[in-house]
Design brief:
By secondary structure, the chain is mostly helical. It is built from 15 helices and two strands. Helix content is 75%, strand content 2%. Helix 2 runs antiparallel to helix 7 (135-156), helix 10 packs across helix 12 (312-342) and helix 13 runs antiparallel to helix 14.
Length: 415
């Protein structure tokens, strides 16, 4: 196919992947709460490695039908959906709510680091032949890495601190009036104290999803993440194209776009630490960054439109600031917020919904990420890049509005 059709088909592959990833989230979270997390994660990673390798092997086997790639991307989306609900459930078990925001904010840097390393490894693999076109190895090498890490997870991951004789975080041992030890789960600032469910590790899928959705805050944060992740993934998928529009060469566009990921690392960590300092008021913290995203987007568009590919240092600063604001609420909601809600006091210590809650929230956000592939392409093609950035500002505003009830509760409940 020609270059234009090639770009369209690659865009179709991305949309298929994100759509199946989003759908998969609503099932894999429930499954992760029912199966041993160590085995569940390992199988997902090894399976992802196999299907990434199959993409590269299409060259050796001379497979040119687009339906092969569509199918691989669909299965890949489902397999990679096993990862996020499970890892958030694991990390959430190890840290109490009081420090969870900062810890998970720093931990979430792995997503941006992975984006950067993926670009570096893929680019290096392409150069393994003298024509710099060895795209087969650009898939096979990452496939080997993720499969090998899946084996390491199977061999060494400790899912719960209680497995090694440690106390579960967030449990404060106190004494009653008779001097007997009692457990008190730390209070949660994320609204509501109505009991949702007792411990039940054998919930049906429908009941598990219903119990998770009824946890106060899940629906609002999920709706907020739909718009928030749409904005974040616009930068992941479209920033190199935008930089090309400004006059950057393809290689420079790939290099400089990584600074947006660096800003995202800083933003995720900063949002987490701020939410801890605010005593777990995650909705207020997310709102602060979502409001800041609007002028940040305006500044980035206005600045880059004026300087284009000149003044590389200023371009870097602009990408750092927009990456910080765009990624901060996205990182906070998908990590600390999901873990908080999965251990909400209304669950009375029941851990069997942690991954389900994460799957619902991030699955809804991933639907927004999938939608941006179509939305941004149409807007950029017919209305231009100014319209794209105004659309992103509107999405950030809508994301903030989704949290209005939670912010009100956090302000007046603890004032």
């Amino acid at each position: 196919c020609d270059a234009t059709n090639g770009k369209i088909l690659l865009g179709d592959c991305d949309t298929i992947f994100l759509a199946f990833y989003a759908v998969g989230m609503f099932f894999t979270g429930h499954l992760a709460d029912r199966f041993p997390l160590r085995i569940f994660l390992s199988l997902g990673m090894i399976g992802s490695g196999v299907f990434v390798a199959l993409l590269g092997l299409a060259k050796s086997f001379k497979i040119h039908t687009i339906w092969y790639f569509f199918g691989i991307y669909a299965v890949q989306g489902l397999l990679q959906a096993t990862g996020w609900p499970a890892v958030v459930a694991v990390v959430g078990r190890w840290f109490p709510k009081g420090s969870r925001g900062g810890v998970m904010g720093v931990w979430n840097a792995h997503t941006s680091v992975g984006n950067i390393l993926g670009s570096v490894i893929g680019s290096a693999a392409l150069r393994l032949n003298k024509y710099h076109t060895d795209w087969e190895m650009a898939f096979i090498i990452p496939a080997i890495i993720i499969a090998a890490m899946g084996v390491c997870i199977f061999l060494f991951l400790v899912v719960d601190p209680e497995e090694v004789g440690l106390d579960a975080p967030g449990i404060n041992v106190q004494q009653d009036t008779q001097g007997n030890a009692t457990d008190k789960v730390e209070s949660d600032y994320l609204l509501g104290d109505k009991s949702i469910a007792e411990n039940d590790t054998h919930r049906s899928y429908i009941r598990g999803m219903w119990d998770a959705v009824r946890i106060p805050g899940v629906a609002e944060f999920a709706a907020s993440l739909f718009f928030c992740k749409l904005v974040a993934y616009t930068f992941i998928y479209w920033l190199p194209y935008y930089l090309g529009h400004l006059g950057f060469s393809p290689s420079d566009a790939g290099f400089y776009s990584s600074f947006c990921d660096v800003g995202g690392i800083l933003g995720g960590a900063l949002a987490g630490f701020i939410s801890d300092r605010l005593k777990g008021r995650r909705a207020i913290t997310a709102l602060i960054f979502l409001i800041g995203t609007v002028p940040s987007l305006f500044l980035y568009r206005a600045g880059t439109h004026k300087i284009h590919d000149h003044h590389k240092a200023l371009n870097i600063l602009l990408m750092l600031e927009v990456g910080l604001f765009v990624n901060a609420p996205y990182a906070l909601i998908t990590t600390a917020v999901s873990a908080d809600l999965g251990t909400h006091p209304s669950l009375k210590g029941d851990k069997s919904l942690m991954a389900t809650v994460t799957g619902i929230i991030d699955g809804t956000g991933s639907a927004g990420a999938a939608f941006q592939g179509v939305l941004i392409g149409v807007i950029a093609s017919y209305l231009g890049w100014n319209a794209v950035f105004y659309s992103l500002m509107i999405c950030s505003t809508l994301s903030a509005l989704m949290l209005s009830r939670l912010v009100y509760k956090e302000i007046f409940r603890h004032s």
